[in-house]
Amino acid sequence: MASVLSLKKTIYLGPFVHSQSLAELEICTQGAIGVDEKGTIAFVERDVTEAIAVAKHEGWESAELVRVQDNGFFFPGFIDTHIHASQYPNTGIFGKSTLLDWLNTYTFPLESSLHALSRARQVYSRVVSRTLSHGTTTAAYYATVHVASTNLLADICLAKGQRAFVGRVCMNTLSPDYYRDASVEDAVRDSRASIDYIRKIDPGAELVAPIITPRFAPSCTAECLSALGELHRETGVHCQTHISENKPEIALVKELFPERKSYADVYDAAGLLTPKMILAHAVHLTGDEVELIKERGAKISHCPASNTALTSGCARVRELIESGIAVGLGTDVSGGFSPSVLEMARQAIWVSRFVAMNDGDQAKLSTEEVLYLATRGGAKVVGLENKIGGFEVGMDWDAQMIGLGAVSESGEAASESEDPVDVWGWESWDDRVAKWVYNGDDRSTVAVWVKGRLVHQTSRYQR
Ligand SMILES: O=c1[nH]c(=O)c2nc[nH]c2[nH]1
């Protein structure tokens, strides 16, 4: 990793957009954000000229200046709260399967092939580069059961400069012979080995941290879940798993854990339902489970593309948010068909509209709300809400420069660069942002920074 201390003081000039609350998006059309040598935001100025912004801050006279290009704006980096790095080659491949047959047909064979480090290097290098190019500055990754390739994913995140939680997957039952933990002891020993390694390569968890990853209740015995709960208590490391994604899965959990009141109770009994747990999906939770998750302070990753692709169901996100649970967005590659959190924001809007068709208009999520889930909401889910997700003094500069295409008077694109969004010049700023949310893609992401370090740029980016 390039040392963050080698950064230069930089002032980012031009419009910026970020969430102030679930429903409120601040759009500052003439901003100046100063970022120090450690990649931390030192000041945020609104409605200032370039000259005044520089003059106002002693010691910033020779700071580097980065100006917004192409009708664009700075936006906080996206936070993908649930992504299987190991499944990236299968993105878009799911046929007509549903969860349990999808796992056996598509997922386990691919994941098991990543025991080969050469394959793991190829897949993990690509997924980290690809997600960075879509503006994902933080990702909560599932790797595989293999310690060496899981550790390699952490190395790659660190080298490419992506903030990440990296989890070695645990699965000691109902899993194929060729891809499983042989025993509870193995699951714990190998999880611990990966935790120790990741803590060694990034001791202060500046960028990369381990995350304990029981795959889901059907693939872990009660003994295994409890042992991982104990490891969680002992190490203080975050946890991630799946919950209540599809109905046959929920029926299976009932059959496997008859002594437990609910799916959520299975995790609670194991000591895993804590404020550091990220639960993916949560499509079919009962009222009692929502209550329990809220009481325990566990968080939820909403994965709309996956839930539609695998016909799992439509999560009732408004109810989850209103119950007080922190919710973020997850691509869930490769149950989800896209590595883009911007696409998830769109998909979350669509899913909420399908819920609204049954439950009423209050279920609909707005553009502002899904952008909150993609940034500040995600930051809460991974426990970094004081560090990332918005532009505040003291937070890290995890950001993306968004560019939008301009239309010339002749009706042609004003610049040579391919841009999926046409801006005519008469739109309000709210409308520009909406056009990006509905039509933008990685071509709109001109440059990306994590902790002040430039980690991705397109050919459009000029310094
Ligand atoms: O969407 C999902 N992807 C997975 O890999 C998985 N494993 C258990 N449950 C799962 N759900």
From TrEMBL:
InterPro entries: Amidohydro-rel, Guanine_deaminase, Metal-dep_hydrolase_composite, Metal_Hydrolase, Metallo-dep_hydrolases. This is Guanine deaminase. Binds 1 zinc ion per subunit. GO terms for biological process: guanine catabolic process. Residues 75-455 form the Amidohydrolase-related domain. Its cofactor is Zn(2+). It comes from Lepidopterella palustris CBS 459.81. Signal peptide: none annotated. Pathway: Purine metabolism; guanine degradation; xanthine from guanine: step 1/1.
